[in-house]
Amino acid sequence: MTDVPTTPPRILTPQAQRALAEADERRRRVTESTSDKPAEVGGQAGPDPVRYGDWEKAGIVSDF
Questions:
Q1: 41 touches 31 (CB < 8 A)
Q2: Which positions ≥6 away from 64 have C-beta within 8 Å?
Q3: Which residues contact 55 (CB under 8 A, 6 or more apart)?
Q4: Cα–Cα distance between 13 and 24 in angstroms, integer?
Q5: Which run of H or of E encompasses 63?
Q6: Which residues share a beta bridge with 21?
Q7: 50 secondary structure, DSSP code
Q8: What is the distance between the alpha carbons of residues 35 and 43, in angstroms, rounded to a whole number?
Q9: What is the rounded average pLDDT of the residues 12-25?
């Protein structure tokens, strides 16, 4: 087996550590806010029409 050199762990500046902590907090808040929403019942199947710009129902397409 060959010896693979390992890199030493990075030493982060306090600013970088704070930025990573803030990003983790934002991700946690987004996960919490999306997980407590009720599931949609009887909604349109497929991609979100608001996001993709059109709505198709029974073969008829309307553009918002």
A1: no
A2: 49, 50, 53, 54, 55
A3: 44, 49, 61, 62, 63, 64
A4: 17
A5: strand 60-63
A6: none
A7: H
A8: 18
A9: 95
